[in-house]
Amino acid sequence: MKELRLAGISTIEAANAFLPAFLKTHNARFAKPPASEQDLHRPIAGTNDLDDILCWREQRSVSRQLVVNYNRMKFMLRSDKTSAALAGKVVDIYDFPDGRLEIRWKGLPLSYSVFDHLQRVSHAAIVENKRLGEVLAWIKQQQDKQPHHRGGLAGPRRSNQKAGLMKDRVDRLIQGTKSRTRPARLGRRRCDNEVSAAPAQAPSEAAE
Question: What pLDDT is attached to residue 15?
Fold first, then answer.
């Protein structure tokens, strides 16, 4: 990376063109003959999926309501024969660099729906859902009492990640934080003009 920076390279195409000459120079400086000429490298087995290896993985427990919590989001497993038996079990979270997120049980992907804790009830939702108006109004009241989240998020950095479930959520969180930024308070402005005290009156003039 340092060599790329020093060479002023910032694109993948330029880096690929730069690589052969860099390898030749690097090997000329640091390469040493092997102790044995036998090649012990093994080919990648067909069961080794690089997409599953090169991703962020965590384990989470499934609640009785078939809900999985990850990164302040609730993933509600869709009810079927497989998910019905997972209450209290541990599932695997696969957070891929391309923005995909999968929940698996013993390698089997599970279907789910998402509820984001960043979602907030709006006045429009209360008006559109008249039958649930009182419930939504109460939820909004409780949400307004809670402080906005400003902390960091667990998991991989997503600044250069492709659009996806988690990347879009981080972008919305950043935009919300920027919109709540208050302008700096202005201090007291000092007057540029010098103010001098009024001349004191003479004792005789003051007596008159």
Answer: 93
Question: Six-digit token pair at 168?
Answer: 């879009």
100 touches 123 (CB < 8 A):
no
Distance in angstroms (rounded) separating the CA atoms of residues 151 and 140: 22
Q: Which of 74, 67, 61, 57 is nearest to 114 (CA)?
A: 74
Which CA distances in Å does 21 have to 8, 15, 31? 15, 11, 15
Task: Label residues 7-42 b or e (16+ Cβ within 10 Å = b).
Answer: eebeeeeeeeeeeeeeeeeeeeeeeeeeeeeeeeee
What's the pLDDT tens digit per position in 142-171? 666 665 544 455 667 666 666 767 767 667
The rounded radius of gyration (Å) of the Cα atoms in the chain is: 32
**What do you get for the CA distance between the two ends of the chain, in Å?**
88
